[in-house]
TrEMBL record:
Entries under InterPro entries matching the protein: Rossmann-like_a/b/a_fold, Universal_stress_UspA, UspA
Protein's recorded name: Universal stress protein
Pfam family, one: Usp
SUPFAM superfamilies (alphabetical): Adenine nucleotide alpha hydrolases-like
Protein family membership: Belongs to the universal stress protein A family.
């Protein structure tokens, strides 16, 4: 472990993949904005004993070194911690979420063969974590005025989820990105009609005049809408009520080469 054990860190699951390193880079920027430590965590089945020669431990240590090097190269003013922990990755990260500001996981997108992996790790963490969870495609894109990749927020006929809206607006402000409000259909609620969506978005524009907000009626679930949407997307912000959409947002998709193949998802929760 580098640094001291502190509450409120941004925690990243590190598994040795390029996707995890990309997530660590994204999380470093997020931790610097929040002014909290960045903690890189690798979970292994092997006992983590000092001086041990287990291959799983060696792999975990190397994975953490690689991710740390990638973060240090960014020169962000953020305290960096690493932890090699014995246990199942999902369980380790869910436990870590009790004291974390945010949990981050990398994903290269979910094909048929990889769906089991996401289901057993990222999706489980998204469902059961005690803090917000970001699942990042290709490390996540930061957006910005030049990039014009939108922060997407699905809007249903239910009472407005203030936490989801506030989270999307905050991210848009930090990155200088526009917000795309998508009126979506949900089985238990039906369709949100455009007039009601427009009325809600008008209120958001009054509260957040510094954020560009566009409204579109999706007439589908958010995952179905994204499957046919071709403009660049930085991040989709959803609430706990829509956590079952995570697999559909991250993948698999029938249009593997469309621009939102780089789309990431953030599950907002208190």
């Amino acid at each position: 472990m580098e640094g001291s054990e502190q509450f409120g860190a941004v925690v990243v699951g590190i598994d040795g993949s390029d996707a995890a390193i990309g997530a660590a880079r994204w999380a470093a920027h997020e931790a610097s904005i929040r002014g909290v430590p960045l903690r890189l965590v690798h979970a292994t089945d092997a006992p983590c004993e000092p001086g041990g020669l287990d291959m799983g431990v060696e792999y975990g240590e190397q994975s953490l070194r690689s991710a740390s090097a990638a973060v240090n190269a960014l020169n962000f003013d953020v305290a960096l911690e690493t932890a090699l922990v014995s246990g199942d990755p999902s369980t380790v990260l869910i436990d870590a979420s009790r004291d974390a500001d945010l949990i981050c996981l990398g994903s290269v997108g979910i094909g048929r063969l990889a769906a089991t992996l996401l289901g057993s790790t990222a999706e489980e963490v998204a469902r059961k974590a005690h803090c917000p969870v970001a699942i990042l495609r290709r490390g996540g894109r930061r957006g910005g005025p030049a990039d014009r990749a939108s922060v997407v927020v699905p809007v249903t006929a239910a009472q407005e989820d203030k936490l989801v809206i506030d989270t999307a607006m905050q991210i848009a402000r930090h990155t200088g990105s526009p917000v795309l409000a998508v009126g979506v259909w949900r089985k238990d609620l039906g369709e949100l009609f455009y007039d009601e969506l427009d009325e809600r978005v008008t209120g958001w524009r009054q509260r957040c005049p510094d954020v560009t907000i566009r409204a579109v009626s999706g007439r589908a679930t958010i995952a179905e809408f994204l499957a046919d949407y071709t403009e660049p997307i930085q991040l989709v912000v959803i609430g706990e009520a829509d956590v079952d959409q995570v697999l559909g947002i991250v993948g698999p998709h029938s249009h593997a080469l469309i621009d939102h193949g780089e789309c990431s998802v953030l599950v907002a929760r208190r």
